[in-house]
Amino acid sequence: MFEKQIEIPSSEEIIAEQPVSREIAAIKRERDKLAIDVITGRSDKFLVIVGPCSAHEPAPVLEYVSRLGKLNEKVKEKLVLIPRIYTAKPRTKGVGYKGMFSQPDPEHKENTLKGIRTIRNLLLSAIEESGLSAADEMLYPENYAYVEDLISYVAIGARSSENQMHRLVASGVELPVGIKNPMSGSIPVLINSIYAAQSPQVFKYHNWQVGTTGNPYAHAVLRGRVDNYGNDIPNYHYETVMQVLESYAETEGGLKNPAIIIDANHSNSGKRHRQQIRIVEEVLQNRLYDRDFKQIVKGFMIESFLVEGCQEHDVVFGQSITDPCLGWEDTERLIFDIAEKV
CA-to-CA distance for 268 and 112, rounded, in angstroms? Predict the structure, then answer.
């Protein structure tokens, strides 16, 4: 049984409440182009999508993004920094805190309408504060329409990458869409997802039949896999990356803009957050070793916040309430290191 609780206005109505200014729209267009140029190979800069596991409270996220904006000024000749402002949290068992989109206060009940308005205000404030537009995860495909004018990168998670609707909506997004390998780690499934996202599609979306032209910027994200016993198995190593490169080349009909982003956390690190530093270093060494590896590996995803680790409840300002993250000092050192070695 479905109990109607709160009627949600259309994305057009919500955006009309708080439209972006010409200045913000111009910043986003510039940031979109920077990210797109990395994926297409028009730029040899390196993407770093970095930030907290989930954005549970605006104030620490804005503090984090403000610091990232200042850091960006020091590394922008080498890197394209994209703050990770993930506003929906997937849950393995389907229960628990599901992110700011549905639960703007993690200590109170769900309120999706308030969540949507909170997110738009946060994403807008982040651009104003730092000059950086964010990345968000497309956990619920219909939600993308509420933030499409404010973000520059979209991620599709491991639990969602095989889902038909995620693939279809990704085909209409005009931004880089990073599709993670499924939990099983299957490379053929990952490649099929990218193929679907890059292909024209017709489907129902927000009470319309819509047609898309396909998204040439859809690409692979390697986040590790989970075996049949629940063990985390990394897939950032040289051998797996080269297998994905071969799969790109062997796909019938071809895929545009072969690219891989390495997720340094999740099953690659076993959620041991400090391992992200070691993983990044190994990948950077492999980029030096092999030209093909360097050409296809175009960035990292890194989980980081103001304070290292995680907490069960929101007590420590700037510490994750979901997966543990690197602290700011380690993050800053790591980003400088990446800029030096790419």
Answer: 32
Burial of 159 (0-12, 13-18, 19+ CB in 10 A): middle
Token readout for 193 is 């997802």
Bridge-partner residues for 222, per DSSP?
262
CATH of 11-38+46-341, one of 2.40.50.840, 3.40.190.10, 3.20.20.70, 3.30.200.20: 3.20.20.70
Stated length of the chain = 342
User: Are 307 and 268 a contacting pair, CB within 8 Å?
Assistant: no
Residue with tokens 């495909």: 141
Give, as one character, the DSSP assignment of residue 261. Answer: E
d(CA 94, CA 278): 32
How far apart CA 83 and CA 63 sit, in angstroms, is 12
Q: What whole-number distance in Å separates Cα of residue 339 and Cα of residue 154?
A: 23
Nearest-angstrom CA–CA distance, 257 and 40: 5
* Annotated domain spans of the chain: 11-38+46-341
271 φψ region: left (φ > 0), alpha (ψ -120 to 50), beta (else): left
Q: Which two structure tokens, joined as six digits, stand for 325?
A: 């993250």
CA dist., res. 203 & res. 165, Å (int): 9
How does pLDDT run across 190-234, given as a tens digit for each residue? 999 999 999 999 999 999 999 999 999 999 999 999 999 999 999
- Contact indicator for 121, 89 with CB cutoff of 8 Å: no
Q: Say if CB 101 and CB 113 are below 8 A apart.
A: no
pLDDT along the chain (342 residues), means of 10: 94 95 97 98 98 94 98 98 93 83 89 95 97 97 96 97 97 98 97 98 96 98 96 97 96 91 97 97 96 97 97 93 96 98 96
| Residue 219 burial (C-beta neighbours within 10 Å; 0-12, 13-18, 19+) | buried
